[in-house]
Design goal:
This protein is an alpha+beta fold and 638 residues long. Among the domains are: 133-202, Alpha-Beta Plaits, CATH 3.30.70; 323-451 and 549-617, no CATH class. The chain is 57% helix and 11% strand. The protein contains 18 helices and 18 strands. It has helices at residues 19-29, 52-69, 81-124, 155-159, 185-194, 209-260, 283-293, 326-332, 343-358, 361-377, 381-404, 449-479, 481-506, 513-530, 533-537, 539-546, 550-575, 579-614; strands at 7-15, 33-34, 44-45, 79-80, 142-148, 167-170, 176-181, 198-199, 266-267, 271-279, 298-302, 313-314, 406-407, 410-411, 428-432, 438-441, 624-625, 636-637. The strands form six sheets. Strands 1, 2, 3, 9, 10 and 11 form a six-stranded antiparallel sheet that branches.
Amino acid sequence: MLKPKQMSKVLLTGHKDVLEPTIETLHDLHALHIEEYAEDDYFHIGTPLPGAENDSKKLLKLRSIASFLGIKKPYPKPINARQLSSELEGKLETLGSVVSGKLGRKSQIEADLKDVQTGMHEVEAFSGIPVNFDLCGGYETLHVFAGTVKKGMDVRAGLKGITDEYQFFAGNTGVFILFVPVKHREQVTDLLAEYEFGEVKIPAIPGTPDDLISELKNRQDSLTKDLESLSSEIDSVKAEYEDFILASEELLSIETQKKETPLVFATSEHTFVIDGWIPADEFETMRSRVEEATSNRVYVMIVEEPVDEANVPIEYDNPKIVKPMEAVMNLYARPRYHEIDPTTFVFIAFPLFYGMILGDIGYGLILLGISLYGRSKLHGEGWNSLFTVLIYCNIVTLFFGILYAEFLGFPLAGLHGHPGLIPGWDTIPLFAGLGGEMVTYPIHRTHLVTTLLVVTLLIGVIHINVGLIAGFRNVLAKHGMKAAVLEKAAWIVLQVGIFLLLFGMMGFVPSMLPGAVIFVLAVIMLVAGEGGTAIIEIPSVLSNVLSYSRLLAVGLSSIGIASAVNIMSGMMFESGGLFIVVAALIFILGHALNTALSIIAPGLHALRLQYVEFFTKFYEGGGRIYNPFGYKRIYTED
């Protein structure tokens, strides 16, 4: 549980005649992490099995169809793989033909729609001009100008000094069309240049602008309806074939994976060699299954030779309840082969810290409901792990919420004459805390700051020293007892010395001398183990411990926000009238915002205490991901 799975390096070799049943068996087992073969003088990289190219083409075709139809990935009831395989060829051909036709229609409609929109854009500039575009060209004695001039300029007034022989038509958009005799073209051109003339191209479409705009709008509406109708047809095809497409894609992915696997094997003219890793407890199962499938024509053996632990693929070995926390570990790094796997520690500490920070029944219930709903609706290993971790965290939040007796920032129990949310429930004094504070049940965080601050620091000391003990074990396994004592145990000794010094200063022990001696001894040990830089790192012990004060501080900030929302909404509610609606809005929106912050802040701070304060004491990480050959079926079943 506290270490990755024990792995065995294995070698499989056999005749090429039994390569296919070997692949089938290994694929079904989903346990062998295959190492890619690097070609040498004798062996060479294998070739895909027959049919690989054909399956790849089908898979590519199916994925393009899925993309066109917008197929998402629900989790339907799995389809029998053998039945699907027998129907695949015919159904895929039919589906391809249907989709190809609809894709062609869609492309044509979209092209026509684009042409219509382009035409409308060109014609709309001439809106309001009562001239047929056919009459705007092809003359030998007339020249046509179309465009705009600077605002405020009167073209017709300027034309009076040139000629009275012209036709001028102005539209609704500032664009005009001007007909003048060719003999006056140069003079009119100069005039328009003074007016900052901007030419607008006359569309090569017969008809008057307003009539054309009406026709093009009708055409656009018709094409839009055709596109909507086609979308409905595509949705019908999607609904009919969605399960088939998802299952077929999975089936073809599996077949392609199997048939292309020889590309990572070593092969000669008659033999193949597979090199890989398998969990030690699954080796015998693999060997017996492979030998049975190949009539003992494949030799399976464990390679007994020293290996670099950096090359060993890492598979977690955690109980089912702890497994969701592996997602938190993967955000950081997988452990190395001989390291302690801290997933179990994170399983305990992360929800504990999260719950201590949030500690509110109302927010805990809201977030627990969201987590349960999210896990039921969003499938997949990643989503499942995320929501399960949130469920763990909010179960602990409810525990601390009951301990603190808080509900959306309201105290449930009364204190010092101030009534709580539940009438008649008052706090019960238990014992004296630090700084003259009285520890009560329920615990009022805002009235027990000093005591709770010390508690969080003690939790930090425990958490950090668990990390140092784990680090001691890791260094002991890798470098021996001396290195473990000097590099890890010395930090524990240092803390003992610091505490004895503090107790001596406060008079809890008769002298500071024992603490000073132990402190100096610890410093000597650290310098011997880590060099002079260890002295610079000594203050980090204090900063790491103080960092755990966030378990109280972030929680108090959440209470502050909730209390502010409650006070503001309460003041508005007391004003009556429309202010009651404002009060409700403040209450709902304020607590909605604080709920969102209640996911982010406690999670980030609890995560930081794992990654920064805890992991740095022992955890190196960086292990390779164990990626067994096989496929996790979702849409098909054997």
